[in-house]
Amino acid sequence: MNVDEILSDQARIAYPVGIEETGRRLSQKKGKTINFSLGQSGPEAIPYDYFREFFLSLSRASEEELRPIALYGATRGGSTGLEAVKKIAKKDGIDPDEKNICLSSGALEGFYLLTRALANKGDTVCCEAPTYSINLKSLIEQEFNIIGIPVRGAGIDMDYLENVLKSGKRTKFVYVIPDFQNPTGLIMSLEKRKQLIRLAREHEFIIIEDAPYRLISYDNVDLPPTIYSLAPDVTIFVGTASKMFCAGPRFGYLIGHETVIERVRRFKQCAGYNIPELCQRLVHGYLSDDTAFEKYMKRILTVQKEKRDLMLRKLEESFPRSNGLSWSKPKGGIFIWVELPEGTDADLIWLEAIEKEGIGITPGKGFFPYDCRRNNCFRLNFTFPTNAEIIEGIPRLANIVNRYL
To answer: In angstroms, how far is the first alpha carbon of the chain from the final one?
Structure first.
């Protein structure tokens, strides 16, 4: 039997995640490797003491207290999970009712289920260009008509978006990451947030606001309010505990209109049904002590700011600002975005960096929809590698990049 002939159309167009492929290739290398492609914090950000206390408390719990951990739970989330979402949302100026919340296995699943609930194959949707590569992969594999909207200094290009909206095709949703955007690190201005809300109401589309980095701020940035807090009638908020806690519990959530959230829950019932009670308790316990939470956040932000500053210094020392080469200086988030001269192929740099230096980066084309794809750029993560790896790795990477300039 030829199994390829049985595969669905969506299975045929599915492609591997770039960071997964980078990790696979690095794992095959002998000797030390350095990975600048990941999207998470380093080991020093893990609250080990809290983990020990949490699991020790379970060893003392009664059977009645432990029983919910072993059973199926509510799709929307249990009481501890919903309370955790409310505590996180409060930090973002949002006070949701439980009917407007649905937990998900990380923000990725929440985004996937949400877009399934909002659009059909062939429907027109818009996203920033560049944008988060894995959510873009989700849009591509659902076979939407994706239009990339350029990202400028203060966020998405509103004139470009308005022209798209006036072109005649109904747009179902516009996906944005307004705070410390992935991959550019840019912040959408308040003026542009209000413009986007106006367009959403005029043209009747949903704004999907993805906000994983909002609390990851290094320079005392006074961020504008969330789009959801300004316009809950046209916005669905996608949140996660992965960047302010850790990614392992896969604790994500959606906040939005009751009708949309209920449809997402129905999809979730065929996609794992519910978030494990253990994970909900783990996140809830972490957030329950405000003083401990603030102390933890201060510590990890201090460490990650030092890493950001170190990587920026090494880039200044190793990469000449000439021949069209530049990079972002993010005030928050976890990435630096590097722009190369027109015509430079970052895929070649990516491959040579792995094969010759054992260094992983994320080439740029995966961050752009097909209608505006380019590859003279790449993304660097500064939070996962150690200081020593940044000091060693950036000059070695520069030796390769400079050969392509």
So the answer is: 49
